[in-house]
Amino acid sequence: MVTIPHTAEGRPARLVTLFGRVDARGSKQAHYIFDGGRPAYAEVVLPADGSLRSLTLQTPAAAWHERELHDQFGIHIVGHPDLRPLIFHENWPEGVHPMVDAVSDVPWSNRSYRFLEVQGEGVAEVGVGPVHAGIIEPGHFRFSVVGDTILHLELRHFYTHKGTEKLFQGRTVADGVMLAESVSGDNCFAHAVCYCQAAETALGICVPQRATAIRLIGLELERLVCHISDLGGLCTDVGFAVAAASATRIKEALLQASAQCCGTRYWRGMSVPGGLRRDFESARVVELVRAVAAASAEFANLTRMILETPSIQNRFEGAGILRSETARDLGIVGPVARASGIDYDVRRDHPYGGYGRQMEVPITHYGDVMARARIRIDEAAISARLIQEAAGALLQGSIFEPAIPARDALGFSAVESPRGELLYWLEVRGGRLARCHVQSPSFQNWPAMSFAVADNIIADFPLINKSFNLSYSGCDR
Amino acid sequence: MIFDVIEQSLRQQPRVIPVEALLGNCQGSRMPEVVADRLTPAIAQKLVEVCPTAAFATEDCGGLRSLRLDYGRCIGCGRCAETGEGAVVAAERFALCGVAKEQIVRRWDIDGHVEIAARAVCADRVRGKIYTLLQRALNIRQLDSGSCNGCETEITALTNPYYDLERFGIHFVASPKHADMLLVTGPVTRNMAAAVKAAYEAVPEPKLVVAVGACGCSGGIFAGSHAIVGAVDAVIPVDGYIPGCPPTPAMLVTGILEVLRRRIAI
Fold first, then answer.
1. Is residue A130 reached through a cis peptide bond, with omega within 30 degrees of 0 on the bond before it?
2. How far apart are the C-alpha atoms of A37 and A6, rounded to whole Å?
3. Is the minimum CB–CB distance between A92 and chain B shorter than 8 Å?
4. pTM, whole model, 2 decimals?
5. A171-449+458-464 falls under which CATH superfamily?
6. Is residue B193 part of a domain?
């Protein structure tokens, strides 16, 4: 069993991710990545050909990771409180583990799945999804309620599971970017950059300064767009249509400015291991900065008015509280963690690319919908400022450093995506990807939803869900 | 306060993009356009090699050496334009949105430097026809069959003040039972296959199905995965295809209107 390292303050280190891998000799390995605080992540590798002792009872953050390890690699986890299939549903036959078994023509099966049953007088079950009422991704929520009040929420996800990690295997390092961009479409640039940084570490490439600066602009622009969109979504979910429409307008202006600048609205096809695929003209950068300044000012004005609206305060405040201890136990990351008092941001605590330790990180302790909204508003303002600073200091020069051809290597990288800590771990064998693990913030944060919605009324669920803004595809992969 | 928000909103300039500027517009999608004059067998071979989703293929077409481009597979990565020595450029206009499956593929005679068989032309006067056929009431249900959410973000953009799909009388509805059209995004995953079929069954006749994005049209970058069943048409019948990764809002508008136009023509 793995021993959890400790931080300098004597706390157990946060489990960042846990994944399986088959090494060059064909043996299964389990890789644990911990964050013991500054400066670096710590990786622990255990042989996993037999079984593994579960960590879940010590750190609940391990629960889903261990279930995934069981599903994908057939590694038995001893002492796990709940080893039901996570990734694969009733249609997937028992005993087929895609990361180690042949998966052509897998037969269709009809297994059963047991939801947790809450018993007691007046308890009713409400099932929602996988198809939801709106333009939204699929997932299943099983509520146990008494009247309007939620006693328990059970999540059933992985409807959008596409076998992405397996699809990476055998691709060239350059081809992997396109797959990374399709893990979670609205955060595609963060995924692309994180993947590229992992590949650059593996291949020992030093990215030119200009490319690093443009990547920072792209990453912060993606965060700005996401946070604007989230605030609009929160307004939609409380029926404040005018404010929601204003947010979509501000967002669209930024997407159009991106398309003018780099040819795609979401910066797809920009990042590549070694730097960037295309450069910006100076005039385009000026236009982009102007668009960001305008959007940021408008958004600040809009959100000030939104937060002064009494009916918004009434709905946002006290809804969906995620307690700090729960967030810590589950290893929650990103704006959701920072709204629950966890002072953690990859950009500041594990700096990469153009970021440094002086980064300002907003924190609040209330852990409700309002706290998550405020964190996003503050972060949006900081992102706009970072974009302007980076654009102002943009150096001329090359944007691409070619890789040294094929060799065997390992690399990993973490990025603060708009939803939180995103991590790519990859192994190159003979010039091709032998393994690529994607740790998305959504996978990490989804389990917290059940705790945040307990004791709330079911009608507030869409609002609370939106305030987490988790990606289903990012989680399901 | 709420009145400040409304007042500020009323002070805004109208942002709506005229329909004429939307139809056929593909800016931001990086869809490729082949320049037939510059094609050589060597370039064609290179295009086939660099394409990550096998959208380009060379084939024998009635004795001619031809280059085949399946837009349904294209993810707009732009590699072909980078390596094609001028034989591929980013398209300025793109009309193949909402077309039938066989129309989404184009072929060029490599040695003769011409396109084999003309492509479909996008009609630009569809507005009147939609009003006639639907009395300004087409209800769309968006269905995610396993998408990465890239297509969802662009479909959501259709309701913003720039694209304002409601001006055509087109609405997004919450239930398949209220819908005339299913707009399906993503490859169909194994885990979503049953739900996709159930949603399709729930839509009352007559119904239209549009496959959206490279994944919806062909499986895209996920084609061949053990966890997906395939493109949308592997599970339910599809009336029209909108390529792109993701298709831009302008391409979505073009595609939705084109599916309707074709339906009227039948």
1. yes
2. 9
3. yes
4. 0.95
5. Cytochrome-c3 Hydrogenase, chain B (1.10.645.10)
6. yes
